[in-house]
# Entry
Amino acid sequence: MRPYARYLGQGSVYLVIVAIVGTLADTPAYRNFPEDQGMIRLTLSHGGKPKGGCRTQSAEELEKIAPNMRRKRLCSRERLPVLVEMTIDDRRVLSRVLQPTGIRKDGPVRLYEGIAVAAGRHRISLALRDSDRAKGFDYERRTVVDIRPGQNFVIRFRPEFGGFVFK
# Structure
């Protein structure tokens, strides 16, 4: 067999393999949610207030402690749980009490939630409580958004920007 015939045959086999792999890579088309819907994603990583609050040490207590360890205010390391609620079009879609992470329960709570909604205009209400109050919320935000088909609408919680941030 001549070398050019062998290379031509080998090239033909490679071409068929590439065509099969290319077809299988593109078919069937993958959709992670229906075309007429959008996704609202809520993401947060936040530490609640210290559990039990803080107290000021007396002068006698401070004298008993080594100079490099003295602090006027003592706060508990353990943090309070965080309550998060989300309402879309007057229907509660999320209500969670998130426990702090870590061995000593002193880490932040984390949440990443995606909620599929029909495309169109929606009223969104969000509330978060990170303190020991019995009723009400520390952060609240309401807005009206237009969700396009296939859109990912992200809501982040950033206390340094006043709470919930919509993008």
Observations:
- DSSP finds two helices and ten strands in the chain.
- The longest strand covers residues 37-46.
